[in-house]
Each structure stands twice: as structure tokens, then as C-alpha cells.
């Protein structure tokens, strides 16, 4: 029997062969892969999409693909922005879309297990029914799956207090690249060798498919306190965040926009050129007002001026609204976002170096940044670039030049080259710089051991 006949015998209705259904699941939301499509090229669809009902069906499908030598591409809901999902004509997409919904919840243990294909917002809303929260709010919460969060090591907008995905994942189930089913032991902590959850977190579909995620939850906090400050100098805003973190305060939302982005979002609430810093404070009863007062004192001491409440309210109202790549390309704009991170000392220089590098690329008309995830020893910078090349034939080269310029500038300062979107294809060849030769040897060793035939998501993550 052929590949699709074998898959059909295991998956039944969970095998999608219709052309439109295959094309719809062939890629993620990478700007670079949108460029040829907006120019009229057809999507390269996979041979088939497997949408198994559970890990057992998926494991069987994986074994069949191995037997046929078919490359396999795990997929959540395709909101990734780095080219982690890009089908070839001989590949099979392994979609988690039917492995969704709540498996169990324990309010007393603050634990909940959901299928990996569960939509992020649906998972969060289900927790809220029990007065609980996952506390992971990526901008793409409505567009992404919880398995995708794990596979990409995602960050949410509330990460400064509640952590990134690695801080809220308690346990995992996965179908590994050889078709075996693996489940981590569920325990609050273990000193039992390297933490194997971390092998899967950030593996971007190269080692297997995450099929279930157990989250360590929080009680839903009381409604928070919002406040904002603007600074004449972006570096003073960064210094304020540093001082807030150093003092031990942990507002869930801490976002500092540079002059260009602040003028775009907050022009009615501050003078032109200033940088806006917004906070949300939350916590057990009584904590938020105390934290807000302490943070206000720190911001005043570092040159901040209080901004009207509408600044934060406006951010909350529009925080998940972004134009599509296709809309931008149709108006002649090539755009993307690049998130990197470093320590406090290097952060101001990193900001300047990357903005200058982007502005040096022919065709770039805007380069700006904000910081949205703060830590004790540093923070991220999230750059946005826009270019208007004179001819559509230059779109791809301009895009590549922007990434090369930004990551070269960041690498020159020793910054972390990937804060939360992952590696995919866009950063793959920068992994040598990011993890070094020793790191690559380790990564390749893990890949070779778990996926000896190299059939899981070839071309992604590992150069
Ligand atoms: C508008 C917008 C805003 C965004 N905001 C954020 C943000 O705030 N924070 C953030 O971190 N990211 C953000 N992203 C990026 C993206 O949403 C995340 O990377 C998300 O985690 C991807 O989830 P997904 O289910 O869509 O995965 P997909 O795009 O389907 O896949 C992403 C990668 O993970 C692999 N994969 C997916 N599911 C599994 C699985 N179950 N097992 C193994 N591998 C799997 C795929 O092979 C691929 O390599 C944003 C994207 C967009 C378009």
C-alpha cells in the first residue's frame, strides 16, 4: 500500500487529502514565505495532513511515515513567524488540531492538562471558569495552540511576573520522532538529571510532537492597577525598569516604547520624541497599590513624568491588533519584527546598534523598538522594521538584508539572538553564533539520537 492508504487505515477522517485543506496547513505566518504568495505563486502543499485524535493514533501515523521515508512537519495553528512550518511536496503535516480540550483540572493542586492542539485563548478561558489562570498571554493568544507555545518557547505579555512558557509548564506528553509515546513525571521539582521537558521546549517540531501540556496555574488575581510614565530619553526608561526589577517588584506588564513607537501609539498622552513606559500591577489583595506606588517613586527618580491612564487603557484595547503581511506587501511594504535580549549594561548600545544597522539597509523607512519582557539581569528588545523596496523583485533580498544586519549588530555585542519567536528557518544559520560549536554538537547529538532518519521538520532550527 502507498503512504496515504496506510495513513488512512489508522486515521480515517483524520487524514486530510483535499487540496485546499492541505494548502491551508502548509505554512506558518513567516513574512518571507508570504512574499512569493503575495506575488501570485501557488502554495506548495504537503502530500497529506494527519490530524489524529490522540497520541496513540499519532504514534501509528509517525511509524508509517518513517516506513515510507516521508518528512513530517508538526503544526499547531500556524501563527509562528520564523518559518517553522513550511511543507515540501513530499512531506506530511502532523496537525494537532483534533488533540484539543481539557483533560483534567485540579484547583487544589493548581494543575490542568490540556491537549496540545488547544487554542491558547480557549485554554485560558477554561481556567478562568474555575477562578484560575495560566497567566500566559502572547499577543497571538487567539491564533496559537498551547503545543505551539511549548515547541517555540513562547513568551506572554505578562511574563515579567508570571514567567515565560518554561515557567508555567509542569509536565508534557509527546510522540517522539521514533513513534514512541513519552510522558514526563509530574512533580513540583526534580534533581533527576537534566530536565527533559527542556529538550522538548523549543524543539520546534524537530524531535517529535507535543501531544499534551500540563500547566501549573495561578489563582486569578484581583483587577490590577495601571499606570504609565514618559521619559525624554529611552535609556532613562530602561534604567527605570532595571531599578524596578532590582528592587524586587514584578509588575506582570512592563513595556517601554522608543520615541518612534511611542509617537505611533501614544501621541495624545506625551510630547513628541518621548518614550512611554506602561505598567500593569497585579497580585494578592493589597499588593498592586503598594507596588504601583513604589514603581511610581522609582520612575519619578529616573526622570519619568506620569502619563494619563488612557495610555495604558489604549494599549490594552489594541494589544493584539496587527496588520497581515499580505496587506502590507500589497501596499509595497516589507516588514517584520526581531526580538533579542541582553543584560542591562549592553541594552542601550544594543538598541542603537540594531536601529542603526536596520536604517543602513537600502529601502528601510522605519526601524524602532520596544522592550516587553524584563528580568533581574536584563530585558528583551523587540524591533520592528519596515522597508519599501522600489521593485517587488527586491522584497526577499531586502528582507534577508534586514535580518542579517540586525542579527550581525546584535551578535557583535554578544546579545541573545532569539528572545521568544524561536529559530525556524529565519535564524537557523545564526544558531552557530547563538550556541557555539559545542552547543551545535549537543543539539545534533540529541537530534541524531531521537530522529536518526532526520525526518522531523528538516530545515528548521539546526543548521
Ligand atoms: C500576530 C502575532 C503575534 C505573536 N505574538 C507572540 C507573542 O506575544 N509571544 C510569542 O512567544 N510568540 C508570538 N507570536 C509567534 C507565535 O504565535 C508563537 O510562536 C506560537 O507559540 C506558535 O504557536 P502555533 O500553535 O501557531 O505553532 P505553529 O506556528 O503551528 O508552529 C510553530 C513551530 O512549532 C512546531 N510545533 C507546533 N506545534 C507543535 C507540537 N504540538 N509539537 C511539536 N512541535 C510543534 C512547528 O513545527 C513549528 O516549528 C506571534 C505571532 C503572530 C502572528
Radius of gyration: 22 Å
Kindly identify the CATH topology of the largest domain.
Uridine Diphospho-n-acetylenolpyruvylglucosamine Reductase, domain 3
Average the pLDDT over all residues and give the rounded result: 97
Largest sheet: 7 strands, antiparallel
How many distinct helices?
A: 17
Arrangement of strands in the largest sheet: 15-12-14-13-17-18-16
Oligomer type: single chain
Terminal CA distance reads 35 Å
What's the CATH first level of the largest domain? Alpha Beta
How would you characterize this protein structure?
It is a single chain. The two termini are 35 Å apart. It contains 17 helices and 18 strands. The chain has four domains: 3-95, Uridine Diphospho-n-acetylenolpyruvylglucosamine Reductase, domain 2 (2-Layer Sandwich); 102-219, Uridine Diphospho-n-acetylenolpyruvylglucosamine Reductase, domain 3 (2-Layer Sandwich), CATH 3.30.465; 225-318, Alpha-Beta Plaits (2-Layer Sandwich); 325-421, GMP Synthetase, Chain A, domain 3. It is an alpha+beta fold and 463 residues long. A seven-stranded antiparallel β-sheet has the order 15-12-14-13-17-18-16, sandwiched between helices. Residues 28-29, 73-81, 84-85, 96, 116, 138-140, 143-145, 147-149, 151-152, 154-155, 204-205, 209-210, 322, 420-422, 457, 460 line the site of flavin-adenine dinucleotide.
Amino acid at each position: 500500500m502507498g503512504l496515504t492508504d496506510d495513513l488512512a487505515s489508522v486515521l480515517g477522517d483524520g487524514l486530510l487529502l483535499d487540496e485546499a485543506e492541505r494548502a491551508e496547513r502548509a505554512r506558518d505566518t513567516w513574512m518571507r514565505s508570504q512574499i512569493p504568495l503575495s506575488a501570485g505563486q501557488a502554495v506548495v502543499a504537503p502530500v497529506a495532513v494527519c490530524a489524529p485524535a490522540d497520541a496513540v493514533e499519532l504514534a501509528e501515523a509517525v511509524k508509517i511515515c518513517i516506513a515510507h521515508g516521508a518528512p513530517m512537519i508538526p503544526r499547531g495553528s500556524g501563527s509562528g513567524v520564523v518559518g517553522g512550518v513550511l511543507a515540501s511536496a513530499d512531506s506530511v503535516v502532523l496537525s494537532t488540531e483534533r488533540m484539543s480540550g481539557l483533560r483534567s483540572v485540579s484547583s487544589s493542586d493548581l494543575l490542568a492538562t490540556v491537549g496540545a492542539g488547544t487554542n491558547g485563548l480557549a485554554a485560558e478561558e477554561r481556567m478562568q471558569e474555575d477562578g484560575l489562570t495560566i497567566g500566559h498571554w502572547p499577543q497571538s493568544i487567539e491564533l496559537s495552540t498551547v503545543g505551539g507555545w511549548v515547541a517555540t518557547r513562547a513568551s506572554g505579555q505578562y511574563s515579567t511576573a508570571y514567567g515565560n512558557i518554561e515557567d508555567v509548564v509542569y509536565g508534557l506528553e509527546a510522540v517522539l520522532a521514533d513513534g514512541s509515546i513519552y510522558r514526563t513525571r509530574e512533580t513540583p521539582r526534580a534533581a533527576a538529571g537534566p530536565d527533559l521537558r527542556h529538550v522538548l521546549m523549543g524543539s520546534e517540531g524537530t524531535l517529535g510532537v507535543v501531544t499534551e501540556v500540563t500547566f501549573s496555574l495561578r489563582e486569578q488575581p484581583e483587577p490590577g492597577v495601571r499606570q504609565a510614565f514618559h521619559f525624554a530619553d529611552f535609556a532613562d526608561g530602561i534604567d527605570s525598569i532595571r531599578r524596578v526589577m532590582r528592587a524586587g517588584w514584578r509588575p506582570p506588564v512592563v513595556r517601554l516604547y522608543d520615541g518612534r513607537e511611542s509617537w505611533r501609539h501614544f501621541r495624545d498622552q506625551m510630547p513628541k520624541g518621548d518614550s512611554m513606559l506602561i505598567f500593569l500591577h497585579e497580585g494578592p489583595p493589597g499588593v498592586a497599590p503598594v507596588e504601583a506606588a513604589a514603581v511610581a517613586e522609582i520612575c519619578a527618580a529616573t526622570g519619568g513624568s506620569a502619563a494619563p491612564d488612557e495610555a495604558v487603557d489604549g494599549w490594552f484595547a489594541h494589544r493584539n491588533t496587527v496588520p497581515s503581511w499580505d496587506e502590507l506587501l500589497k501596499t509595497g511594504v516589507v516588514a517584520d519584527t526581531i526580538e533579542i535580549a541582553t543584560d542591562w549594561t549592553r541594552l542601550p548600545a544594543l538598541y542603537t546598534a540594531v536601529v542603526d544597522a536596520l536604517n543602513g539597509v537600502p529601502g528601510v523607512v522605519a526601524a524602532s523598538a520596544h522592550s516587553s519582557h524584563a528580568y533581574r539581569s536584563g530585558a528583551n528588545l523587540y524591533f520592528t522594521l519596515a522597508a519599501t523596496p522600489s521593485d517587488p523583485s527586491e522584497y526577499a533580498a531586502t528582507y534577508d538584508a534586514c535580518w542579517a544586519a540586525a542579527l550581525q549588530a546584535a551578535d557583535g555585542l554578544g546579545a541573545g539572538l532569539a528572545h521568544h519567536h524561536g529559530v525556524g528557518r529565519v535564524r537557523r544559520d545564526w544558531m552557530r553564533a547563538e550556541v557555539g560549536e559545542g552547543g551545535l554538537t549537543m543539539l545534533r547529538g540529541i537530534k541524531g539520537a531521537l530522529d536518526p532518519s532526520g525526518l522531523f521538520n528538516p530545515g528548521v532550527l539546526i543548521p
